Amino acid sequence: MSISQLDISSEHLAIVQQILRQLVPSCEVWAFGSRVKGAAKPFSDLDLVVMSQQPLPLALMASLSEAFSESDLPWKVDIVDWSTTSPDFKAVIDQQKVKVQAVVF
Which of 47, 72, 81, 88 is catalytic? Predict the structure, then answer.
């Protein structure tokens, strides 16, 4: 799936990507859930999974949550850490996902 299939405006996508570049520049990030499936309501949350080999530090997860909460986004952003996600949930995410951020070096 391509990013054009993600059910958010280009303005909101730019905010999401800016926060991700600032806080997790070395991680791929994928969107999944209702905003990928085309089932989102106007205030449905955006589900993001950070692709990491090791568990993300709690302070970083808190920083991500805070940055999204304080942004101008009109909906909540839920962050999932791939490395701590169960195999069953990984399978659900893998079914429909859209890359929001490629690895930046």
Answer: 47
For residue 25, the 8-state DSSP code is T
Confirm whether 45 is a catalytic residue: yes
What is the per-residue pLDDT for 43? 86
**Domains along the chain?**
3-101 (3.30.460.10)
Asked if 72 is an active-site residue, the reply is no
The confidence score (pLDDT) of residue 34 equals 94
Residue of 7, 45, 88, 94 with catalytic role: 45
Nearest to 68 by CA among 3, 8, 26: 8
Consecutive 10-residue averages of pLDDT for the chain (105 residues)? 83 97 96 92 94 96 98 97 97 94 76
Residues making up the chain, counted from first to last: 105
- What letter would DSSP give residue 55? P
Q: Which three-class secondary structure state does DSSP give residue 29? A: strand
